[in-house]
Amino acid sequence: MRSGPDVGLRQVPTEALQTLLRHLHRGEVDCPLAPLRLAAIGLQEHSERLMNALRGLESGGVRSVLVAVLAERL
Fold it and tell me: What is the rounded CA–CA span in Å between residue 14 and residue 10?
C-alpha cells in the first residue's frame, strides 16, 4: 500500500485533516480507521496516505497526530 518514500501526512491537504478531526470529535468515525469509513466522509482520495500514517491507532492517537500536524501547519 505504500507509494514511495514519503508516507506521512505532508501531501494530505489541511482541509482533509480538519474534516477527519471534525468527524472524530463528533463520533462519526471509528478507530482504528478503515478505508470504507474514510470514503463515507469524502476522504477516499486521501485514504492511502491517511491509512499509512494512522493505521492501527485508537481514536486518542489519531486525534493527537491530527492536532499536532494541524498545529504545525496553522
Answer: 9
Residues 6+ away with beta carbon under 8 Å from 22: none
Q: How far apart are CA 25 and CA 10, in angstroms?
A: 22
Structure-block grid coordinates of residue 1 = 500500500
The C-alpha angle with vertex 10 and arms to 3 and 25, in degrees rounded to 5, equals 110
pLDDT tens for each residue of 6-38: 558 999 999 999 999 999 999 999 999 999 999
Eight-class DSSP state of 55: T
Taking the C-alpha atoms of 14, 5, 64 and 30 in order, what is their torsion angle to the nearest 10 degrees? Answer: 80
